[in-house]
Specification:
CATH architecture of the largest domain: Orthogonal Bundle
Number of domains: 2
Structural class: alpha+beta
Oligomer: single chain
Number of strands: 5
Bound molecules: zinc ion
CATH class of the largest domain: Mainly Alpha
CATH topology of the largest domain: Arc Repressor Mutant, subunit A
Shape: globular
Distance between the termini: 34 Å
Length: 138
């Protein structure tokens, strides 16, 4: 768990007013690395005794995404998941358990710039497979 002074600075650096709810959510995202959905975040915080409404959770996450603190990971046929790693990276998705793993990628080396399509704001790369944890169960 990061201390709240640090989290407050992180919010201020992105010109976000550091309310208690925002600090709670940012702290949660820093400690949870499973790419949670709004539903999971809401349920986890409720279980920890924090009664944030689902709308508050959603609105705060959206604000964090707009300000570049979080990014949205969209997998086909599933709801949006949130990721605290705002920098570009790739994902490995386990087809057995649905876990999502982060992987640093040097996107510049791929040299994909899409000059015909427009300007790029976010780069994603998804690999699918079976994770080590699931493999060891087989
Ligand atoms: Zn797995
Ligand atoms: Zn990620």
């Amino acid at each position: 768990m990061q201390n709240y002074a640090q989290l407050t600075e992180e919010l201020k650096a992105r010109s976000i007013k550091p309310s208690l709810q925002r600090l709670l959510l940012l702290n949660y995202m820093h400690t949870c690395h499973t790419h949670p959905t709004v539903e999971q975040i809401y349920a986890d915080l409720a279980a920890q005794g924090h009664a944030l409404s689902k709308a508050t959770v959603y609105n705060t996450l959206t604000l964090f995404v707009q300000k570049g603190l979080l990014r949205v990971v969209n997998l086909d046929r599933s709801e949006a998941r949130y990721d605290v790693l705002a920098c570009d990276h790739g994902h490995f998705v386990c087809e057995c358990c649905g876990a999502i793993y982060d992987e640093p990628i040097d996107f510049d080396k791929l040299n994909l710039i899409f000059p015909e399509a427009g300007s790029v704001n976010q780069r994603d790369l998804f690999y699918r497979g079976v994770c080590k944890r699931c493999l060891s169960k087989e």
